[in-house]
C-alpha cells in the first residue's frame, strides 16, 4: 500500500514549484529575446552593461514559458510577498511530514542554483533526485529508501552546454570553495570533474552522457567544468522536469523524469551487480521498484512509453532490464508482460 501525502501537501508543493518558476522569470533584468539555434528556439534575457549587450539564457521555448514571459510585468511586482508565501509553503510541507533536507545540502543546492547550474542544463541525478519525487508524485518515502548520501551528482549534455552560449555567473570552483570543497585528484590535469569537501565525506560530481569509448572526461562549457562520461545517461536526461527543494523559501532545480529515472535504475543495478558497488545495486533496484509501483498506478502510459524507449535501444539494454526485473516479484508483475 502506498502512503500518500495529503491533498493539502500535494497542492502546497505544486504552488511552491509554480512560484519558483514565476520567480525565475521575474528575475529577468532586460528584454526577453527569442533565439533560433540548431533547429531549437531558446529564450534569453538581453540587457546592456555599459556599451556591451549581454545575453543570459532563460530556457527553451515552450507554451508555459511564453505564458510566463507575457506576464513578466506582473511577476516583477510583489516579489517579496511571493518569497514570504514560499517560505510559508515550505513550513506547511514540513508540518505535513515532507522530508527535510540537510542544511549543508540545501545551502549548496541554493548556491549552485544561484550560479545558474540548473538554468543552464544541469540535472540533479542519483539519490538526491530520488528524494525530490516525493513532491512530484505526492507519496511518502521510508527512511530506508531515502537515507542521505554524501554525494551530489549533476549531469548535463555536452552539446547543450555548447549550444546555449552562456556560462554560470560565478565559476563553480569558487562556489564550491566557499563550502570548503577542493578538487579531487584527476587523471588528466586541468580536467576536474569531482570535488570533495574537506570537513566531511560529501562529494560533488559532474557527469555527461558517453557516446564514444575514447574520452572518459568531456567539457561542459556552460558550467565551466569537465564531466565523467557514462553510458545510458542520454536516456536518463531526456526531457527533464523542474523540482522544488524545501529549503528556506524553496530552491528550483532540475531532475530526470521519474519514469526514466526508474528504468535507468534497473539498468544501472545490473551493471553494478557483480562489482564493488553490489550494495548500491540493491538500493538502485529498490528505488526503481518503489517508483514503478507508484507510476504503474498513477502514470501507466508514461511508464510504458519510457520502458518501450529503453527496450528499443538494443540487446544489452533489454538484457539488463530483464535481469533486474527477474530479481523482483513486484517488478515481474508490473513490467514482465511488457518485456
From TrEMBL:
Residues 105-310 form the Nucleotidyltransferase-like domain. It holds the Pfam family NTP_transf_8. InterPro entries: DUF6788, NTP_transf_8, NTP_transf_8_dom. It comes from Mesorhizobium shonense. This is Nucleotidyltransferase. Residues 18-66 form the DUF6788 domain.
Amino acid at each position: 500500500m502506498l502512503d500518500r501525502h495529503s491533498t493539502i501537501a500535494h497542492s502546497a508543493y505544486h504552488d511552491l514549484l509554480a512560484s519558483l518558476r514565476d520567480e525565475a522569470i521575474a528575475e529577468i533584468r532586460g528584454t526577453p529575446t527569442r533565439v533560433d539555434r540548431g533547429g531549437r528556439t531558446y529564450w534569453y534575457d538581453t540587457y546592456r552593461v555599459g556599451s556591451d549587450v549581454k545575453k543570459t539564457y532563460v530556457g527553451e521555448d515552450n507554451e508555459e514559458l511564453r505564458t510566463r514571459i507575457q506576464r513578466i510585468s506582473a511577476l516583477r511586482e510583489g516579489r517579496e510577498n511571493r518569497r514570504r508565501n514560499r517560505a510559508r509553503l515550505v513550513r506547511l510541507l514540513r508540518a505535513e511530514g515532507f522530508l527535510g533536507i540537510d542544511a549543508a545540502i540545501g545551502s549548496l543546492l541554493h548556491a549552485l542554483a544561484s550560479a545558474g547550474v540548473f538554468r543552464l542544463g544541469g540535472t540533479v541525478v542519483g539519490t538526491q533526485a530520488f528524494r525530490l519525487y516525493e513532491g512530484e508524485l505526492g507519496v511518502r518515502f521510508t527512511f530506508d529508501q531515502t537515507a542521505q548520501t554524501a554525494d551530489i551528482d549533476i549531469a548535463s549534455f555536452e552539446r547543450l552546454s555548447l549550444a546555449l552560449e552562456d556560462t554560470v555567473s560565478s565559476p563553480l570552483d569558487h562556489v564550491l570553495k566557499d563550502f570548503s570543497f577542493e578538487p579531487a585528484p584527476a587523471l588528466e590535469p586541468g580536467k576536474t570533474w569531482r570535488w570533495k569537501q574537506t570537513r566531511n565525506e560529501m562529494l560533488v560530481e559532474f557527469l555527461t552522457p558517453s557516446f564514444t569509448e575514447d574520452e572518459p572526461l568531456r567539457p561542459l562549457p556552460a558550467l565551466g567544468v569537465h564531466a565523467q562520461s557514462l553510458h545510458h545517461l542520454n536516456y536518463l536526461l531526456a526531457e527533464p522536469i523542474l523540482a522544488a527543494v524545501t529549503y528556506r523559501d524553496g530552491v528550483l532545480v532540475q531532475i530526470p523524469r521519474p519514469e526514466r529515472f526508474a528504468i535507468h535504475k534497473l539498468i544501472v543495478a545490473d551493471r553494478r551487480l557483480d562489482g564493488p558497488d553490489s550494495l548500491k545495486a540493491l538500493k538502485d533496484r529498490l528505488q526503481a521498484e518503489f517508483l514503478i509501483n507508484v507510476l504503474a498506478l498513477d502514470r501507466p502510459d508514461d511508464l510504458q512509453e519510457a520502458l518501450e524507449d529503453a527496450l528499443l535501444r538494443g540487446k544489452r539494454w533489454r538484457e539488463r532490464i530483464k535481469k533486474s526485473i527477474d530479481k523482483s516479484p513486484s517488478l515481474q508483475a508490473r513490467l514482465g508482460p511488457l518485456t
